[in-house]
Design a protein that fits this description.
Blueprint (H helix, E strand, L loop, with lengths): L5 E6 H6 L3 E3 L11 H21 L10 E10 L23 E6 L1 H18 L4 H11 L5 H4 L2 E2 L2 H12 L15 H17 L4 H14 E7 L3 H13 L6 H10 L7 H15 L3 H12 L6 H12 L2 H20 L9 H12 L7 H10 L4 H21 L3 H17 L14 H12 L6 H16 L10 E5 L11 H4 L3 H9 L4 E5 H7 L4 H10 L21 H19 L4
Parallel strand pairs: 2-4, 2-5, 3-6
Antiparallel strand pairs: 1-6, 3-4, 7-8
Helix pairs in contact: 2-7, 2-8, 3-4, 3-7, 3-8, 6-7, 10-13, 11-14, 12-13, 13-14, 14-16, 15-17, 16-18, 23-24
């Protein structure tokens, strides 16, 4: 049957290598994905890569990969609802380049472009050829300003090109020009990816990049006009209900249940399914790690676990349901009951801010094993909180950090993890020295990690959890990272080397309401001080910013004193002194 649109499966390399220009029309909403979406995407890609590695297809030209949905486009400028023939847009080498309006898929394609840019810059120092190949997917030939493959709307394009798409751009500090929600979202996702990918070794980064360009798969629907594209977009987003993995697993479970048990298990399954929601796949991947065969796909692993138990009802009641309850409590920091609930949930809030979730598997198993012993759970989480943050501050790659968590999982299995003196909890003297060194340049470890550490210190000073306000604050260098030659700051910091050291010092970093931060920017001391304290409500001044209120200058000794004070507070919180 003839249609006036076409749909083509393609992987990321194909759609970006074909030479087409992906343009965001002015009527599109701005970029809005944040930490959760960025974390979900990279976690999904990591899981898909691991599954391809397990089945041997990761290094090939046709990995099983990860399907991210449908992208809807139309020729730029096209209007009306009729076209004389189907639109021919190819996604192959040598295809005739066309300018395409991106009608559906802005958030995904922008986020994937940011991911490729971060990967390009991270691997450039050790694999220039791979970095060049990635850059060819980001920018075509000609002037960099106009030749980028993805061109955002006017308000965001300049920042995207300058701070993300240009070679080496993502290695620079977050751009000060992020003065709108969309621009801040671009910088937030960029920093989130930098933090996650910095956990990989150079070899892992290159392998991930080579897999991602072929492993990320889409269906591109090309419509003849904006009107037709909008109708297709509406149909794709408003109609139909996708078949989820949990529906297939439920079918496998109920096929093995005695008929008399089905009504009760059906009610319990509905509760568990609603409780897990979008975390269902991640939960089953964990369950597979803890009690199944990690090399199997999730559905096959679920079936194998049922068969291993020999009784589908026992599998649900003894394994799936208690683990699902614990998993939900862990991810939502909602442990219930007993005098230890507040302490447990406060520790879980801090752990949940860390990207990657490598700590969840040992926590889930320990929590299920000791679900009637909250004191033990609280003690376990306190030790885990120290270890998990220490590993981030050490800057270990994902593989090495995962190795530590795998060792912890084994210690949970054999009972050693309940012992606070067990070797699995230990940090060597050299590791503690390295942490102390890294703390002095904390911002260079990545602004998301920097914000996490500073926020914990603010909560420690406040004596309460402040999570509901965290999104409103950003990391501010009180002495700006860049100062003009006639800046008053240079009177207090005349030496260039000392000025740079003080600007990057832990003692110079504050968490400031981002609206105030946008206004203050690189201003002189007096203006910043007035914005922070005279123009702000008390709710916008966190405890560790408050001491600045009575200060009339900010000089190198002030920076060093505060660095020492914050380092002592960190050491008290996590016992990290060498």
């Amino acid at each position: 049957m003839a249609t006036n649109f076409n749909a083509q499966p393609a992987h990321l390399e194909q759609i970006l290598a074909a030479g087409h220009g992906w343009l965001v029309p002015s009527f599109q909403r701005g970029f809005s994905w944040g930490e959760r979406e960025a974390d979900d995407l990279i976690n999904d890609l990591m899981v898909a890569l691991q599954e391809d590695e397990a089945n041997g297809s990761a290094a090939g030209d046709e990995p099983q990969g990860h399907f991210i949905g449908t992208i809807v486009v139309c020729p730029a400028g096209g209007t009306g609802d009729k076209a004389p023939a189907p639109i021919a847009v190819e996604f192959t080498d040598g295809a005739s380049p066309q300018a395409l309006f991106l009608i559906d898929g802005l958030q995904r394609l922008t986020t994937l472009t940011i991911l490729l840019c971060v990967l390009r810059d991270l691997i450039a120092s050790h694999d220039a050829a791979a970095a060049d190949a990635l850059h060819a997917l980001i920018e075509g030939e000609g002037d960099a300003e106009t030749s980028v493959k993805l061109r955002l709307a006017a308000d965001e394009h300049g920042l995207m090109q300058r701070a993300v798409q240009a070679r080496g751009a993502t290695l620079a500090p977050a751009d000060d020009d992020a003065d709108t929600p969309a621009k801040r979202a671009l910088m937030l996702v960029r920093e989130r990816f930098k933090l996650a990918l910095a956990e990989l070794t150079p070899e892992e980064q290159t392998a991930f990049a080579r897999w991602a360009v072929k492993g990320v798969q889409v269906i591109v629907v090309v419509a003849p006009s904006i009107d037709r594209a909008h109708r297709i977009f509406s149909a794709l987003n408003d109609r139909g209900k996708p078949l989820d993995r949990h529906a297939i697993i439920k079918s496998e479970l109920f096929a093995r249940l005695p008929r008399a048990s089905m009504p009760a298990i059906d009610v319990a399954w509905s509760r568990v399914s609603a409780m897990l929601g979008a975390d269902f796949n991640a939960f089953f991947a964990l369950l597979r790690t803890l009690h199944g065969r990690p090399s199997l796909p999730i559905i096959a692993a679920a079936v194998a676990m049922m068969e291993k138990h020999g009784d589908a009802q026992r599998f649900f009641e003894d394994l799936l349901e208690p683990h699902a309850n614990a998993h939900r409590a862990i991810l939502t920091s909602s442990f219930e009951g007993g005098a230890y609930a507040g302490e447990i949930n406060a520790l879980l809030v801090g752990l949940n801010r860390l990207s990657g979730g490598d700590w969840v598997a040992p926590t889930l198993l320990f929590t299920v094993q000791h679900r009637e012993e909250p004191a033990k759970i609280a003690a376990f989480l306190k030790r885990l909180d120290r270890l998990a943050h220490a590993l981030r501050l050490l800057g270990l790659g994902r593989e090495k950090r995962q190795g530590r968590m795998t060792a912890l999982l084994q210690a949970v299995r054999n009972g050693e993890a309940a012992n606070p003196e067990a070797s699995v909890w230990a940090l060597s003297r050299e590791e503690l020295r390295n942490i102390g060194f890294n703390l002095r340049g904390l911002y260079k470890r990545g602004s998301p990690l920097c914000k996490i550490i500073l926020w914990r210190l603010e909560e420690d000073a406040a004596g309460e959890i402040l999570s509901d306000r965290m999104a409103n604050f950003s990391v501010e260098h009180f002495l700006p990272q860049r100062t003009s030659s006639d800046s008053p700051w240079r009177t207090w910091f005349p030496d260039a080397d000392e000025r740079e050291a003080c600007a990057q010092s832990l003692g110079n970093l504050f968490l400031v309401d981002h609206k105030l931060n946008d206004r203050a920017r690189n201003s002189a001391f007096d203006k910043k001080h007035a914005i922070y304290f005279e123009a702000a409500t008390d709710a916008k001044v966190l405890p560790l910013l408050e001491p600045l209120r009575t200060m009339t200058a900010w000089r190198p000794p002030d920076v060093r004193r505060r660095e020492l004070a914050l380092t002592q507070r960190i050491n008290a919180l996590w016992a990290l002194a060498a």
